[in-house]
Design goal:
Helices cover 82% and strands 0% of the residues. With 125 residues, the chain is an all-alpha fold.
């Protein structure tokens, strides 16, 4: 029976690590480790290091998870902004190419003698 539990635990551990952990999970792990250490030290003063480590680990994991969640939300917001900026840059580049094509077309058709090249410099908008 113990072997079955060990094998299932190992399978759960390996299966859980198949994907990279998120910022929230990293925060929970770090907070849990720090909380368990601090709880064990404080619990040792009352001759209960195990109980102190459990309580400290749980509280640390909760706090670390909350901090990690905030950081993950910030990362997602920054990624969304970066995506929007890149989309706007592409649209501007497309419009610049289109404007240049229109200017070339006007020049090729002979309308250049009616076109004031300095107008664009004097009136950028």
């Amino acid at each position: 029976m113990k072997q079955l539990i060990c094998i299932l635990s190992l399978a759960a551990l390996v299966g859980g690590c198949a994907t990279p952990i998120s910022t929230r999970e990293k925060g929970a792990l770090a907070g849990g480790a720090l909380g368990a250490g601090a709880g064990a030290i404080i619990g040792n003063q009352f001759d209960r290091p195990g109980r102190g480590a459990l309580i400290g680990g749980a509280l640390g994991a909760l706090g670390g998870g909350l901090v990690g969640d905030q950081m993950q939300g910030q990362e997602q917001w920054q990624n969304a902004q970066s995506y929007e900026i890149e989309e706007q840059r592409r649209e501007l580049e497309r419009q610049r190419r289109e404007l240049e094509d229109l200017r070339k077309d006007r020049y090729d058709r002979g309308y250049d003698r009616y076109y004031d090249r300095d107008y664009d410099r004097r009136n950028p908008y």
